[in-house]
Write a structure and sequence with these properties.
About 35% of the residues lie in helices and about 20% in strands. By secondary structure, it is α+β, with helices and mostly antiparallel strands. The strands form seven sheets. Strands 17-18-16-15-21-22-23 form a seven-stranded mixed beta sheet. A hairpin with a 3-residue loop joins strand 1 and strand 2. The longest helix is centred in the C-terminal third of the chain and has 27 residues, at about 375-400. The protein starts with a strand and ends with a helix.
């Protein structure tokens, strides 16, 4: 008898598979990193073939680690790095180019051209998104315009597009031999091509960007049976698709309007459930789909997207060699009581919410001979907390409510020093659940709901359990002084 749910989490730096029981506990898992490809400054690519290969590796390894087979699984869900764009041949499965990662800024000239014709908010009323290099639509247009033969092949019906959820689902369900070409409403809402009201592709935006509609996947709910898998998951329903940050919203069981979570991954992403209403932002946030379960109406969210948080720690490791593993950063930062007066603003891919400045570049300000590698490590951690505060301030203005507590998850949520500073700088409690990998758990929940493994949202809420809460300890005067210094440092990133 099938007893478990599997979920695949294809992230910006790694791919993993986790297998959960009915209580939401991890039974088995496996995870592998993939290459980050940087051909030019501001360009970030992934190899889709490597991602598909590693997906198969981690699924097989997770099953082996748990002593399980596909027959033990009732369904599989997929969650993914959003906006990352793949265009491939529907007959062979061969990608026409490496995937353009969500951090990639090569579409800046196209975005600027589009903005000149109608402003940065040209499509925001329909899509909930400003014009930015972040989103998939301009990335598709870049591939069609710059890869020889791509446009002709797309117009002939030979090429198809997908974010990573679509690409993996197509391969999981057969690839060139009958794989389904689908996405869910959360991922579609990140392309800058979907109308939030109709939950369908917007014909005018497709025309402006020159994207053939036939390339695009069918938009479906986040929790439904799309098709059965083949190969090593033969016969297992693929039944849940969620963009990674929406998956974390589900994994944190933020099902009521006003509930919010923040995920610390490569970047950080704070989502606030706004219910059945899509709330337009006036302060630099995104309006997005939070999830849609089966035939129920879509649930919307406000989102503050931060490009670089965990990736800054990775940069300290890989580019500067200050640490040999990400886990070392907390111990190194704990050797000092503060940053020695420096601020680190990691605008490596411009700045996302609430600034939306693709021209911004990273800065370290306040350097003196006093500063050590420990101060740099602490400044890198504090940068994550300051960026989250910027987003919270914007979210409170848009939603008209004060944040009372912040649910946290993701890899950096294990960092106790960061969590305490986050509570201090927000002046609210920070709450961490026992299962911090809520992104992959959310994908499992979506798949399980679709096949009746879980029947009610209350069952999922009952699975959530507290690990630790941090309370503010910083006095108001110091908090204000530090935040003013941060805002001055952010302004430096705008200077040529």
């Amino acid at each position: 008898m099938s007893r478990y749910i599997a979920a695949i989490d294809q992230g910006t730096t790694s791919t993993r598979c986790m297998i959960f029981d009915r209580g939401g506990q991890v039974i088995a898992s496996d995870q592998r990193e993939h290459r980050q490809i940087y051909p030019l400054p501001g360009w970030v690519e992934h190899d889709p073939e490597e991602i598909w290969h590693l997906t198969r590796v981690v699924v097989r390894a997770a099953l082996e680690n748990g002593g399980l087979s596909a027959r033990d699984l009732v369904a599989v869900g997929v969650t993914n790095q959003r906006e990352t764009t793949v265009v491939w041949n529907r007959h062979t499965g061969q990608a026409v180019h490496y995937a353009l990662v969500w951090q990639d800024t090569r579409t800046a000239p196209l975005v600027e051209e589009l903005a000149r014709a109608g402003g940065q908010d040209r499509f925001r009323a329909r899509t909930g998104l400003p014009l930015a290099t972040y989103f998939s639509g301009p990335k598709i247009a870049w591939i069609l315009d710059h890869i020889p033969g791509a446009r002709a092949a797309a117009e002939a019906g030979d090429l198809i597009f997908g974010t990573i959820d679509t690409f993996l689902t197509w391969w999981l369900t057969g690839g060139p031999r009958g794989g389904v070409h689908v996405t869910d409403v959360t991922n579609a809402s990140r392309t800058m091509l979907m109308d939030l009201a109709t939950l369908d592709w917007d014909e005018e935006i497709l025309r402006v960007l020159g994207i053939p509609r036939a390339m695009l996947p069918r938009i479906m709910p986040s929790s439904t049976v799309y098709a059965e898998a083949t190969d090593l998951l033969e016969g297992v329903p693929v039944a849940g698709l969620l963009g990674d940050q929406q998956a974390a919203l589900v994994g944190q069981t933020c099902f009521a309007p006003g509930e919010a979570k923040n995920t610390y991954g490569t970047g950080s992403f704070l989502l606030l459930n706004t219910g059945a209403k899509a709330v337009a932002s006036r302060h630099g946030l995104l309006t997005t789909v939070g999830y849609q379960f089966g035939d129920a109406p879509a649930v919307y969210a406000l989102e503050g997207s931060i490009a670089i948080t965990g990736a800054l720690v990775q940069w300290l490791r890989d580019n500067l060699g200050l640490i040999t593993s990400a886990a070392e950063v907390e111990a190194l930062a704990s050797l000092v009581e503060d940053t020695g007066g420096i601020y680190f603003v990691p605008a490596f891919s411009g700045l996302f919410a609430p600034y939306w400045r693709s021209d911004a570049r990273g800065v370290i300000v306040g350097l003196t001979r006093y500063v050590t590698r420990s101060h740099l490590a602490r400044a890198a951690l504090e940068a994550a907390a300051y960026q989250v505060r910027d987003v919270v301030e914007a979210m409170e203005l848009d939603a008209g409510v004060r944040l009372s507590a912040l649910k946290v998850d993701g890899g950096m949520a294990v960092n106790n020093l960061l969590m305490q500073f986050q509570s201090d700088i927000l002046n609210v409690p920070v709450v961490r659940p026992q299962v911090i990998e809520t992104t992959v758990l959310g994908a499992a929940y979506a798949a399980g709901l679709a096949v009746g493994f879980w029947r009610h949202l209350d069952e999922l809420r009952a699975n959530w359990s507290l690990d630790r809460t941090w309370h503010p300890q910083m006095d108001a005067a110091r908090r204000e002084r530090l935040c003013q210094g941060w805002k001055k440092a952010v302004l430096r990133t705008f200077e040529p």
